[in-house]
Amino acid sequence: MKSELNGKTILLGVSGGIAAYKTPELVRLLKKAGASVQVFMTEPAKQFVTPVTLGTVSENPVLSDVFPGNREGSWTVHIHQARRAALFIVAPATANTLAKLAHGHADNMLTTTYLALPPEVPVLIVPAMDTDMFVHPATQANLEILRGRGHVILPPDDGPLASGLSGPGRMPEPAKIAETAAGILKSEPKILAGKRVLISAGPTREPIDPVRFISNYSSGKMGFALAETAARLGAEVTLVSGPVHLSDPAGLRVIRVESALEMQKALESEFPRTDLLIMAAAVADYRVETVAGSKIKKEDSGNLELKLVKNPDILAGLGKKKKHQTLVGFALETDRIVENATRKLKEKNLDAIVLNRANEPGAGFETDTNIVKILFPDGTVTEFSKMLKKDLAGQILSVCSRVMEHNHV
Ligand code: CTP
Hints:
alpha/beta, eight-stranded mixed beta sheet, five-stranded parallel beta sheet
């Protein structure tokens, strides 16, 4: 099989961690798949692997200096390198290099080239460091920034580390990195090109008083994965999200809301210019009738009774207004799951409903994986095995694209 890497120029940034000793093997695998490889090294990386080794296996002199003494007038080399890249890989990415990439430092050839990359060049970051450094909130915050920029972060393996300790931090094997790189370069058909896709995600928060609210465990991961994937598949995407700990995905419009009523307002105003609505949000069914203007004090009463009133069913309301739009809902069920989901599919006038069980390991809220079935109005059911929410997003969207074709959008 022809590799996606064949004929591509890959820039490989190597920073100074012990895992750098594995990078000659990575270069060898990329070359074997037909890529041409240009290596950039930071000075500390040279403590772990030599430029001679990486220069030899890549068949290209390694670049380290922004101002090389022997190449007068050629200090713009990083710009030219960045412009011909099909993919920029940073492996291993140390905590220090991650911080520099996240905050836009340009103090060496690797970080400077990163800043010169055209926006369409994908970036694969492979962090490797001791567990304590990896789990440190500063490192995690930097990774979140890079993820938010649309870069792919290949998580480190869990296992013995150079420090003698054990935990997450080991660089994955070169074969895994090369395989991920090939996956990124695989060109996906833009099946949603020209389509306007509206996606809701996350929980809603229903205020009780200025400091308290009612909500649920939805993490927003499924809705965000759908939004990112729809954008990658060519759609013009608007994501309406309740409060979640996820940063705005690159390349799409994000509207942040808090309550069900705010979510309803945002979705209703976007709906007329939408071709496909996917309602992945976990909307609170009830809100507090009268929100206290100041903090409720416990001495004011014995037990506290809150009167809850029903929130509007946003999806059912949009189902009634449906014209050319394709509508897809989610159903989270614990009992009589197919029966309940089928009822929701009909009552809300949907074209499909994605059904997942709340009480199955590897499914539902807060997990990275999900196990779903998709139900259609004609009674057909498509079942999927347990998979990562981001892979499932691609499968769901490909089903949606077929439904839209069928609906002649
Ligand atoms: N939904 C909505 N507005 C609500 C409640 C739910 O738009 N007030 C949407 C959800 O986003 C989801 C679908 O309706 O796409 C089904 O949500 P779910 O919580 O499974 O069902 P409910 O209709 O709320 O019914 P129940 O809570 O009784 O299971």
